[in-house]
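LAB NOTEBOOK - FOLDING QUEUE
OPERATOR: T.R.
BATCH SIZE: 2
PURPOSE: Compare the predicted structure-token outputs for two unrelated chains run back to back under identical settings.
PRIORITY: normal
REVIEWER: second-year student, initials M.K.

ITEM 1
FIELD SEQUENCE / FIELD STRUCTURE:
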Amino acid sequence: MTADGPYVLRAQGLSKDFLGFTAVDKVDLNVRRGSIHALIGPNGAGKTTCFNLLTKFIEPSAGTILYEGQDITREGPAQVARRGIVRSFQISAVFAHLSVLENVRVALQRQLGTSMHFWKSEASLTPLNGQAMALLDQVGLTELARTPAVQLPYGRKRALEIATTLAMEPALMLLDEPTQGMGHEDVERVTQLIRKVSAGRTILMVEHNMNVVASIADTITVLQRGAILAEGSYAEVSRNPAVIEAYMGSTDEPLKGAH
């Protein structure tokens, strides 16, 4: 274990007020090392605000954030990214007219120390081809390496975004609605991909699709009106009367699915 025992990320009393409206209210969040931790809740529950606080896109009104036992509450997005906390959209913007391989090479370019050297020839990136292809193999895109990203189906584009996220060598991946807008086949493919890439990493994800959450999340934190309503395994939270009422407006039947 490292400095913070079994937990890689901890939030203590995390709060955010916007002009008198409390979007996140005294949240205590403990993300266990090596787990897939899902943050769920009805619309307006504060999930996105909580994610923005954890990745330092907005500053908390109160509370502390600890990563590997270090207080990162006042650090900026770039600082926490260098620590190994990588949010999918932070670095996974797909360049539509570059090939799938070229997109991953761009994400890997920082290893050469030339990420800001725009006058460098394309040949300078050739040493990254092997690593880029290995990442594409990991996400099932090897056969599409030469395809322009703009031609990818939506689900495959999300797989490319995950590959570019992996290129940053994250210790903690934060995935914001990874299956949003997908058809059933793509949802299943990306769900299995998340399970695969979680090996040796910690994943914190916001996700609406309860089937996805049920199948891969080790721990689920349920937010309502900015506060934690329940936490536990899917079996535990799906039978919690307060959670059922928050999603369904009734406590008559277990929570089975929500989008």
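ITEM 2
FIELD SEQUENCE / FIELD STRUCTURE:
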Amino acid sequence: MDIASAVILAIVQGLTEFLPVSSSGHLVIARQLLHMDEALLTFDILVHLGTLISVVLVFWNDVKALIGAAVGIIVDILRGCGIKAAILKDDYRRLALFIIIASVPAAIMGMALKSIVYTLFSSTLAVGIFLLATGTVLWLGELFSRSRVRLPDLTLGKALCIGVAQGFAIAPGFSRSGATISAGLLMGLSKEDAARFSFLLSIPVILGAGILELRDISMLQLAAGSRIPVILGFITSIVSGYVAIHLVLAAVRQHKLTVFAIYTWILGISVIIWSIL
């Protein structure tokens, strides 16, 4: 992998991981345009770690509070406090529980549909179709959004619905952030809270995917000549992910999710035509 390809792929990964346009779909397209059929495990792990770092940087106060809340729940339970009482002590404890529960559907769907998803990643036609689905989901989320529920008042059932929406994003071309933000809007969250929950929910998903990839630890050797491209890709993914998060936050505040819907519709139609021709 040369430096230019590494930087391009890292920018694509960082931006589209959080922009509601599907990172998996864009990476399939980018790899084909760059004629890169092989996947470099080390590179994939590091750029995912880079996007994880970017979301932690932006939401550091929330992340720190959630870690403290999770530890507090465990400590209280060990001290004899009831589970329900330990969880309901403050808003961050409830939010930590919701994030954990909302992460479960994606893990189950990912394991159950692994072979099907692997096949879809080799199909640009499938990517195009799921990009159209992403645009439709974004449009529906914007159309039917009703800000009635504060994030601290989110219910377990609504958090689980958002988690199920995230699970469908295992398909290439179906945006994880687009699905979770739109589901949050449909559940009554404000745009800011829907986006915030979506980004916080991405942390266990990205971390879990990285841990699964690390099972092939023997493959983490950096070949001679690939060290600089991979390191540059890692740094680039942090910067581009950081920028993408702020772009999405600005877009949801200004009611511009339909811009991403139009983009994914146009790209989806283009990819479908490309795959057919």
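REVIEWER COMMENT (ITEM 2): Residues 3-276 form one domain.
FOLLOW-UP: none requested
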